[in-house]
Amino acid sequence: MEEKIAIVTGGNRGIGFEVCRQLGKLGYYVILTSRKKKKGKEAASILKKEGYQVKFRELDITDPSSIRDFTKWVSKKYDKVDVLVNNAGIFLDSPNDSVLNMNQKIIKKTLDTNFYGTFHLSQAILNLMITTGRGRVVNVSSGMGQLNGMNSGYVGYRVSKTAVNALTRILADEVRDLDILVNAVCPGWVKTRMGGENATRNPEEGADTIVWLATQPTGGVSGGFYRDRKPIEW
Fold it and tell me: In terms of CB atoms within 10 Å, which end of the chain has fewer, N or C?
């Protein structure tokens, strides 16, 4: 059976770590990436001990040179990439921030990671996928980025995820003639460092739809926004 290669950003903890585990269970060779080298290595070591094929690689998606180095390494070491899960993200907003007076640096820093990081890495890896004519890209978004029902609060995070949703549609249309499927997912409110202890879902539940989209068959869904394996409004 041909080995399938999956790249997961922000794979050292939370949803990303669980996505790595679930893809590993399905037989994928997982490249777990993290900005923090020590934590990334520790996470990969745990999954290796569980019997999965996992390789750690340092990657800072806010640094174009890091993305270039990572892409060069991937293209030299592997002859293809089957899956890219853009999971890495940050949440810097305070619940009391108003769009009328909030610090614009928060929005810029959030966009640098959540949108521009996702954009630049997708651009690089999709070009590798195009050489083989096949691949799956999953952008981890949020219901907070839905224009349908959009309201105030958490401006930086909302804007960044709305931008990720737009990017998803654009990328999916660009590769529509190939067996490359691009989708966005809202994992729900998950018990992670970002989601907090009051969240209603565990990481296993949060990862489920991401993995489902990452393993879509030829002719599967593309250009959609999903939660619990069902399409939701943009």
Answer: N
Sheet of 83-86, strand order: 54-58, 29-34, 5-8, 83-86, 134-140, 179-185, 225-227, 230-231
For residue 191, what are the CA distances in angstroms to 119, 145, 206, 211?
26, 19, 9, 18
Q: For 101, which DSSP code?
A: T
SS3 22: helix
* CA gap 223, 234 in Å, rounded: 11
Q: Do residues 74 and 68 make contact, with C-beta atoms less than 8 angstroms apart?
A: no
Mean pLDDT of the chain: 94
pTM score of the predicted model? 0.95
pLDDT band at 189 (very low <50, low <70, confident <90, very high): low
**Model confidence at 199, in pLDDT bands (50, 70, 90)?**
low
Instruction: Report residue 206 CA to chain centroid gap.
Output: 12
> Which of the residues are catalytic?
157
DSSP strand pairing (230-231 vs 225-227): antiparallel
Asked if 128 contacts 177 with a C-beta cutoff of 8 angstroms, the reply is no
List domains and CATH numbers for the chain: 5-231 (3.40.50.720)
| Whole-Å CA distances, 17 to 22, 33, 37, 125 | 9, 10, 14, 20
